[in-house]
Amino acid sequence: xxxxxxxxxxxxxxxxxxxxxxxxxxxxxxxxxxxxxxxxxxxxxxxxxxxxxxxxxxxxxxxxxxxxxxxxxxxxxxxxxxxxxxxxxxxxxxxxxxxxxxxxxxxxxxxxxxxxxxxxxxxxxxxxxxxxxxxxxxxxxxxxxxxxxxxxxxxxxxxxxxxxxxxxxxxxxxxxxxxxxxxxxxxxxxxxxxxxxxxxxxxxxxxxxxxxxxxxxxxxxxxxxxxxxxxxxxxxxxxxxxxxxxxxxxxxxxxxxxxxxxxxxxxxxxxxxxxxxxxxxxxxxxxxxxxxxxxxxxxxxxxxxxxxxxxxxxxxxxxxxxxxxxxxxxxxxxxxxxxxxxxxxxxxxxxxx
Length: 353
Hints:
The protein is of the alpha/beta class and about 350 residues long. It has a single domain (about 1-353), classed as Alpha-Beta Complex (2-enoyl-CoA Hydratase, Chain A, domain 1). The protein is built from 16 helices and 9 strands. The strands form 2 sheets. The chain has a 6-stranded mixed sheet with strand order 1-2-3-5-7-9, with helices on both faces. α6 (about 160-165) runs antiparallel to α13. About 50% of the residues are buried.
């Protein structure tokens, strides 16, 4: 066991600096990190000497690969209420980042998935390094694109968010900038200098502009027509049919997307598509409430635990989804995940955590 803390807070010059410090675990987010980060952000929000917050990560492989899935799996299997508390606290942290009263700069490089997206995308400034690998891979473990995915994914260009949420497709630096996940692109080698400049000068707009790169090479723009054509359908079944029917220059790409989707949890696919449809119509905090409703049902189900078993624990990549096919997931089944809870997510008092 390391004596190093999982998360480090320091005040440097004008900035409060958060360092995610679990590099051997790809900086996976655990309950302790969430529990410590929220009150620290509150303290900095109320400290006139702190002009901005910077979030970075230790190691070179990942900003944050998501939540500590194995811990969550074990809590859920044991019926431990800690799993629900984790998601409540994480979603409250996401919401506080979204409404943070000071500039919030995430220096994002390497792997950023799931919970790591929640710690970055809702901030005012997101700087992507060239090693960035963004994905929302939740449907592959019987889960759903949460941490605000209900809000930000439908607001990416066209149907890009629906494509990302259903297929777990990965974006590199150029595409992250083009979609708007990142607000700036910079060389990974410049991240230390960016940190020092922000701490010294503040003024993230001007400071980041001095390091920003103008990129070409994004792949998503050329795919936008086929993404919009196929992923604008109202049902997962229709999306698959459109992908299967695609001809011409994007036929091979479409076939790969369809094959990928058919490996995912059928229940998760239908939940994720409904998220995109509902999330496009409501504001951020309502989206977080929707996600809390969904996760409260997911953790009482089957597919999440089976997905984690297949991908994380046994690594056989052969999940036994229940139901096994899309035809076994009815509209009423999906409706149940979105139904109100006796105890809805409370987003009051975020600035007093």
